[in-house]
Amino acid sequence: MLRSRLFAPVALVALALALTGCSSGSGTPAAAVTLPADVVTGFTVPAAKDKGGSGNPVKIGVVGASNQQFLVLKDAALAEGIHLDIQDFTDYSQLNPALTSNQLDLNQFQHIAYLASYNVEKKQDLVPIGATAIYPLGLYSSKYTATGDIPAGATVAVPDDQTNQARGLQVLQSAGLIVLKAGTPSLFGQVADVDTAASKVKVTAIQADQTPRSLDDPNIAAAIINNDYIADTGISPADAITQDDAGSPAAAPFINVWVARNADKDLPLYAEIVRLAHSDAWNQALLDNSKGTGVLVDKAPAALQQVLADAEEQLRTT
């Protein structure tokens, strides 16, 4: 069943490729392709020079381009005549600037709270156009198997980007390891908001991609590690000694999303890519990659954009 969703009939693939590869550039021949009935309204197979055509692929920035869900998506898109160039980034702080500067057409790596922080700080208007999943954020340690075992005065690392740092602090507070000062915003708290006198441990912020390596540091008792960096280090999500609740209403700002420039948010081509990224094959690959910890989410763009607006408002008023 998954296989049938992933690979369109050979005749359709051949026809789509022939028309897009031999187009005169007018784009009109693509309209003759017979598409599946459930494609996004307004979507047509792009001609070679059109965005999404063989000569002008949709450039998508991700962390972990070799992950199976992106291979699944690339094949499914090609079966509809859409060419994708999925570009791998190791530092996720580069992905939004690359999208803003037109180096990318879409990106898929971040949750809404992270996007809100970027938009407000950089005065940009990137927008979510589709959801993927929520991933619980976990605390990991190579030295202790429970939060209660972490000794008083020990140091715990959190990611240094604003929103993941804030979310990590919420995890630590829920575990009883720290106390945040009164009035600390739940989405945008920082290490400076930790009440050190009332907290059991000290907190240090380090670059997110260095958090897994910090577990080998004798001076670090535990670390908050983003899911993006777990698979490549041999750590299993099941190894988390505590994590947040992905199913709670408060988790909405942490829905991972597909992101586009505001001017492109309504393009049928991009909506069709998002639709393909909700196939059974994509969902299964995504869950497999997260070792079953991801919680799948399928929300309308308007709902996601409202969550973004609320998060941006919270950030501006803090």
**Which fold name is given in CATH as the topology of the largest domain?**
D-Maltodextrin-Binding Protein, domain 2
CATH architecture descriptor name of the largest domain = 3-Layer(aba) Sandwich
Radius of gyration: 21 Å
Overall average residue pLDDT:
88
Strand proportion, as a percent range, falls in 15-25%
Largest sheet: 6 strands, mixed
Structural account:
With 318 residues, the protein is α/β, with parallel strands linked by helices. The chain is built from ten helices and eleven strands. The protein folds into two domains: 201 residues, Periplasmic binding protein-like II (D-Maltodextrin-Binding Protein, domain 2), CATH 3.40.190; 107 residues, 3-Layer(aba) Sandwich (D-Maltodextrin-Binding Protein, domain 2), CATH 3.40.190. The strands form two sheets. The chain has a six-stranded mixed sheet. The relative contact order is 0.18. The N terminus is likely disordered.
Provide key terms for this protein.
single chain, 318 residues, alpha/beta, D-Maltodextrin-Binding Protein, domain 2, six-stranded mixed beta sheet, five-stranded mixed beta sheet, 10 helices, 11 strands, 16% strand
Summarize, please.
The chain is α/β, with parallel strands linked by helices and 318 residues long. The chain is built from 10 helices and 11 strands.
